[in-house]
Amino acid sequence: MTDMKARVTAALKDAMRAREPVRLSTLRLINAAIKDRDIARRGEGDQGGISDAEVLQILARMVKQRQESASAYEEGGRLELAEQERAEIAVIEEFLPRQLDEGEVEAAIGAAIAETGAAGLRDMGKVMAALKARHTGQMDFGAVGPRVKARLAG
Predict the structure, then answer these.
(1) Alpha-carbon gap, residue 3 to 55, rounded angstroms
(2) Per the structure, how many domains does the chain have?
(3) pLDDT tens readout for residues 91-109
(4) What CATH number corresponds to the domain at position 32?
(5) Alpha-carbon distance values, 26 to 16, 62, 146 (Å)
(6) Is 86 helix (H, G, I), strand (E, B) or coil?
(7) Within a 13 Å sphere around the CA of 47, how many CA atoms are in the beta-carbon half?
(8) Residue 65: closest CA among 46, 43, 88, 42
(9) pTM for this predicted structure
């Protein structure tokens, strides 16, 4: 069992003992998503299970989905559902690494460009791959992509 899977399992048990229904249901959703990915990997012939990096990707995707749902609920006037989504985000983010601030993101982009020797827009994929390998869960790659593109174009 990977370290991330073990942390989720331990937190799940703690939430059961503490009788925290929101936390418990969110942790069960996380556990189910991890197991689904694990089963899919076994179906592809990989018996090793999923890595911590893949767990971080799953968690980042879950946060993004909930942020989009919360925004949609707010626009629709369903504030209680938006608040529930935000509570789930708070639980999921406990397992994600600290988010990088603007200066750290710029430094990471610069380091990835230098490391890959990127010279133009053709090399954007290499830069993004390097950032994802090193900073999964620490930055929003949807927002970072245009910044990388601007740096490579300029």
Answers:
(1) 10
(2) 2
(3) 998 998 888 888 888 888 8
(4) 1.10.1510.10
(5) 12, 10, 32
(6) helix
(7) 0
(8) 88
(9) 0.72
Q: Helix-strand-coil percent breakdown of the chain, rounded to 5?
A: 80, 0, 20
14 neighbors 40 (Cβ within 8 angstroms): no
Q: For residue 32, give every residue at least 6 positions away whose Cβ sits within 8 Å of its Cβ, in sequence order, or none.
A: none
d(CA 96, CA 4): 10
The whole domain housing 118 covers 102-153
DSSP annotation of 100 reads P
Q: Is residue 71 located within the same domain as residue 140?
A: no
Nearest Cα neighbor of 93 from 10, 1, 12, 27 is 27
- Residue 84 carries which side chain, given as an amino acid letter? Q
Quick check: 104 and 122 in contact, CB under 8 A?
Answer: no
Query: Do residues 69 and 143 both lie within one domain?
Result: no
Q: What is the pLDDT of residues 122-147, one digit of tens each?
A: 888 888 888 888 887 788 787 888 88
